[in-house]
Write a structure and sequence with these properties.
Length: 433
């Protein structure tokens, strides 16, 4: 059963009008109910409303629209309807693949000034079809002498590269504390840019410790969109005591506090974008179909999208084959075969995958940014992006050289997954400094 034509042909970006925050939320709730009913009847998707465990069926909580082969979800209070699979990562796809992705219904694209081929390529591809694409990009204001002027100048630069007169979502990149977004000079920049119509919504990306960073931002009422690292390893682990038995523990979402982040996003109607959705392994290569017709990549996407707090899953679509593979997960539910595949993957990789929870950093007497350093190693060694790894390392160390690791093992003791350890910091420094 398809949706009524006026819904199918409405702008892919949803309502374009910017309404006062309270109106927006009230409207969005009415719209949520209407779209939810349509989704329940017309789409028949099942989206989990709580922690989705491997082996559990997701309860139905529809808040979706289907248009053609793509499924769109509401991006929180923005009321934008975003494709549940979207384009992100660095580098950006080649223009031909990018255009194909847009033609096939992907309408949300996230980038950053620092991403290879990022804003310039998006500007090139979206020029002439700007109204059907929702663009999110970011700035990195941490060492700006005048953050208000710096964030405004960065936005002007992004607008030029993106060949547009407005950004749909303008983000602070990699917030590590609530004040990175809430500080008065940053808020002043966002207010001015919103007033001038240069940005529509305010966002952040958060790599580390989302429980402590994001929940206060959601509660502040000032944040519209959060881009958060989120993948099957966010909800599943092999505890150190279970390594020998290879037992996968699948209630980690609740135990880690991430479930409270998802719940808070829903409660405060903040649009949640999942990044690092392929976490856990090497750069994606199209896979042989397996396990009930799904690949591991498709199972990972389905796991992320089984959380109804998530509006869209970012993916790097670096080839037609990867695009095809990822689109194969759209509108599909997690099957027992997918769950078995994911369980095996978690069993194999758990001790190598940093969940970016920040526990090691909090325990480290030198306060070394261990999760960010591990991220650099992943970019370099698993994703074969040495230049990007060096760039992120430079950003981490821009304020000055990092203190030496005292080899105290506090990080190893704090890490619930057996990932952190004394050698990691020096290894990163050795190859990237
Ligand atoms: S071993 Fe090094 S990185 Fe780990 S907690 Fe101690 S000082 Fe920090
Ligand atoms: S190394 Fe372990 S403790 Fe540190 S952020 Fe990653 S998962 Fe958390």
């Amino acid at each position: 059963m398809s949706l009524p034509q006026q819904v199918l042909t409405s702008t892919p970006c949803g309502e374009k009008r910017i309404t006062p925050a309270n109106d927006s939320i009230q409207l969005s709730r009415r719209e949520f109910v209407r779209r939810g009913a349509l989704g329940a009847v017309g789409v028949g998707l099942t989206l989990g409303s709580g922690a989705m465990m491997l082996g559990q069926e997701a309860p139905a909580t529809p808040r979706v629209e289907k248009r053609g082969d793509m499924v769109y979800r509401r991006l929180g209070r923005t009321n934008l309807m975003v494709s549940e699979l979207s384009i992100g990562g660095s580098p950006s796809p080649e223009p031909a693949v990018f255009t194909e992705a847009l033609d096939r219904g992907m309408n949300f694209v996230d980038t950053s000034a620092g991403y290879a081929g990022g804003e310039e390529r998006i500007g090139e591809v979206t020029e002439g079809r700007r109204d059907s694409v929702i663009i999110s990009t970011k700035c990195f204001p941490y060492r700006m002498a005048d953050p208000t002027a710096g964030v405004i100048a960065a936005c002007e630069t992004a607008l030029g590269k993106l060949r547009t007169d407005h950004l749909d979502v303008w983000c602070i990149h990699g917030v590590g504390a609530p004040e990175h977004f809430l500080a008065d000079p940053i808020q002043a920049a966002f207010e001015q840019l919103k007033t001038q119509g240069k940005i529509r919504f305010a966002g952040v990306s958060c790599h580390t410790d989302p429980v402590r960073v994001l929940i206060p931002l959601f509660e502040s009422g000032k944040l519209d969109v959060a881009i958060m690292a989120f993948n099957v390893f966010s909800g599943n682990t092999v505890k150190p005591e279970d390594v020998k038995a290879g037992k996968v523990y699948d209630n980690w979402l609740a135990d880690s506090g991430l479930q409270s982040v998802l719940d808070s996003a829903k409660q405060h109607d903040v649009g949640l974008v999942a990044m690092k959705t392929m976490g856990g392994g090497a750069l994606q290569k199209p896979d042989a179909y397996q396990a009930d017709g799904s690949t591991l990549a498709q199972a990972k996407i389905k796991w992320v999208l089984s959380q109804d707090a998530v509006a869209t899953a970012l993916s790097e679509v670096l080839s037609y084959e990867i695009l095809d593979e990822n689109l194969g997960a759209v509108g599909k539910t997690l099957t027992p075969g997918d769950q078995a595949l994911l369980r095996e993957h978690v069993r194999e990789r758990s001790a190598s995958v940093c969940r970016m929870c920040g526990a090691c950093q909090r325990a480290c007497p030198a306060k070394l940014p261990i999760p960010d350093l591990l991220r650099c190693l992943t970019y370099r060694d698993l994703h074969y992006k040495p230049a990007y790894a060096r760039q992120v390392y430079r950003e981490i160390t821009a304020a000055g050289p990092l203190p030496a690791c005292g080899a105290c093992t506090a990080c190893a003791q704090a890490c619930p997954h057996g990932v952190a350890g004394p050698g990691k910091v020096e290894q990163t420094r050795g190859v990237l400094a």
